[in-house]
Amino acid sequence: MHLGSRESNHGQSSNGSFESQADRKWTELVRALELDTEEFRGMNGKADFKQQSDFQCRISNPEVGAALVLTADLPARSIQYSYEAEHKNVAVPEGGFLSLRSGDSGVALYSADQQLTTEQARRLMLEPLLFPPAKSLEKTGT
Q: Does residue 8 lie within any of the structural domains?
């Protein structure tokens, strides 16, 4: 009986604190992306990190002429990421969504039903921007 009561309370607690846990996960992700950007600059890379609002940040790389924009919608339990061309004739990859889901150890990030660590999510989003393949993100046309 005590275990059932505990599970019931745990469920209520998880629901009540999901948004605060999601906010912590978002803050963790943004801070890690900012550190990644600083590290990239330390390796003579050109990248800029800007926190545009509490729930949006932008990382740009002028060398490839593209930017990554992340927008969190915590009530919808999602983070949208998209790539923007900063110059004409620059091809950019498609963006996507990360979902925020409750788990045993708090809120977790998911992409296409695959759970990701914060590091995996950062790599997924930053690789096309900071470490593009030779043919990707290059100028097209004349």
A: no
Which tens digits make up the pLDDT trace of 77-98? 999 999 999 988 899 999 999 9
Position 134 scores a pLDDT of 61
What residues make up the domain containing 89? Answer: 18-130
Using a 10 angstrom Cβ sphere, with 0-12 exposed, 13-18 middle and 19 or more buried, the burial of residue 81 is buried
Residue 98 lies in a domain: yes
Please indicate, yes or no, if residue 81 is contained in any of the structural domains.
yes
Can you say whether residue 8 is alpha, beta or left, with left for phi > 0 and alpha for psi between -120 and 50 degrees?
alpha
Number of compact structural domains in the chain: 1
Sheet of 106-111: strands edge to edge?
48-53, 56-61, 66-73, 78-85, 96-103, 106-111, 114-116
Task: Tell me if 5 is assigned to some domain.
Answer: no
All residue ranges of the chain with pLDDT < 50 are 1-15, 136-137, 142
Count CB-CB contacts under 10 A for residue 111: 17
- Decide: 23 and 111 in contact? Cβ < 8 Å: no
